[in-house]
Amino acid sequence: MAMLGSAAALSPTVSFGQQSLRVPRIGVLVGSASSADDPAVRDGLQVFQDAMRDAGWIDGKNIRVDYRFAPGEIVKTDAGAAELVALAPDLIYGQGLPAAQALHRKTRTIPIVFSLVVDPVGFGLVASLAHPGGNVTGFMVYELSIGSKWMQLLHEIVPDLSRVGVLYHPDTAPYAATLIASAKAAAGRDVAVIEYPVHDDREIETAAASLGYEPHGGLMVVPSSFTGAHLVQIIAQAARFGLPNLMPHPGAVERGALISYLYAPDAWMRQPVTYIDRILKGESPSDLPVQAPTKYELAINLKTAKALGLTVPVRLLVNADKVIE
Question: Over the stretch 262-285, which tens digit does the pLDDT of each residue have?
Fold first, then answer.
């Protein structure tokens, strides 16, 4: 993937004899990594680029794509959004709520397509799901009630669970309170749910140490651009302190997390391209309804389960979409 463009560059043209055709330009703001070198980001962007190619858009030929990355930090996300808006592209695609919000603050005219966003109405991105009404539309990643499903899955794989720490970054996951309330409702009276707002790797380590101090603890991670950017550290600390964990992030189970349940990664990387294609061909984002997830993926890492001394119930294995052995 080419890292393209300075903020002052003009949109290129392609000449055919006497004719000169303007090449469309789009921006992509990834809010969970500092570069495309992150394996999960690299794999996701490859799916995105393949989907663009399938739709007939080839970077460097009939479209120009500028990428910006922000490692889960609001300031850097805002800076990346400003840089992309300054390029005056035909459209910007933003991954995650902080990225979508930053882009929305910077422009009310350039079309914006988002993914990995929760509650776009509540956070002021669109007027309604059916009729967005402005320059923003896209694809939700889940309903906030999914916290109850996450708690049920973690409890099923760890029957003697008595304490669950919920790890989140308050700025990049402003929806955490609602999601945690959903998880608490499903936890039952015998399971204490403890909130751990974190801001850096040191606080992640402290939270994991606190949970691992006594037996029967578990860890649930609220997905956001911050936890995505710090996923390696979170997984490492969970392993260090022997914490059964649920981490609904793309690539988490492949990297060593115990269990994940989230919107199928290939779908959320491919689906935005359908709207990007339609908008580039003349449709307005205000007329394209926000879409909810259509497929979820349950993934389990048996190697991690063995290291934690856990036996994964057969029912979970049968229902799993992906099992890492």
Answer: 988 777 789 999 999 999 999 999
Output the pLDDT for position 268: 78
Q: How many whole angstroms separate alpha carbon 151 and alpha carbon 182?
A: 9
pLDDT tens readout for residues 97-134: 999 999 999 999 999 999 999 999 999 999 999 999 99
Assigned token pair, 121? 């109405």
At a CB cut-off of 8 Å and minimum separation 6, what does 173 contact?
A: 97, 179, 222, 223, 224, 226, 227
- State the residue range of the domain holding 175: 146-263+297-324
Q: Verify that 167 and 289 share a domain, yes or no.
A: no
β-bridge partners, 59: 63
In a domain, 7, yes or no: no
> Are the C-beta atoms of 298 and 320 separated by less than 8 Å?
yes
In the chain, which ranges are continuous DSSP H helix?
A: 39-54, 74-86, 97-106, 146-157, 176-187, 201-212, 225-229, 231-240, 252-255, 265-280, 302-307, 314-319
Global pTM value: 0.87
317 shares a domain with 196:
yes
Q: What is the largest CA-CA distance in the chain?
A: 76
Mean pLDDT of the chain: 91
